[in-house]
Design brief:
This protein is mainly alpha-helical. It is about 40% helix and about 10% strand. It has a two-stranded antiparallel ribbon with strand order 1-2. Helix 2 packs across helix 4. The termini are far apart.
Length: about 160
Amino acid sequence: SKQWDRKMNPPIPKFLDKTKEELEDVVLTHIERKWPDIYENPNIRFNRREEGDSVQYTIDVGDPEEWRKLLPKSPELANFNLPDHFIRDANRQREVQKQFEVWTIRNEDPEDEQYVAAQKEYQKKLEKEQAMAEQGIPIPSKKEGVSRDDWFNDEPQSWY
């Protein structure tokens, strides 16, 4: 029967036929669309870690001074071993294939709501900085020399 055949020979999930680099591109594009200023904002720190067949990503956002005060009190925040009570849906099981499919579709959609909202927010920030520059007000500092390649550095980014 067809049902028996599907159970015995399930279709290969679409994301499994992609290379690791293609999957990373989907994830990083999703992140870059969500945080357009990730490579220039000094209040964003990002890291990536490979563990066997999987890759974990972390993005920390906030005032570096506040992080420097908080990390000695909660050192688990400095690595990938966050306690479950820090994560809203820690026990939720996710279908990874569907997540990659959703992100792939959303990455290609210029009208995606999250992307449009992030771009509008980023554009407002740029306009505000331009107005500050025109008035002679110092512009907040930006990270320099940071790019997508920094996800693959051996040394993790730090708040120190």
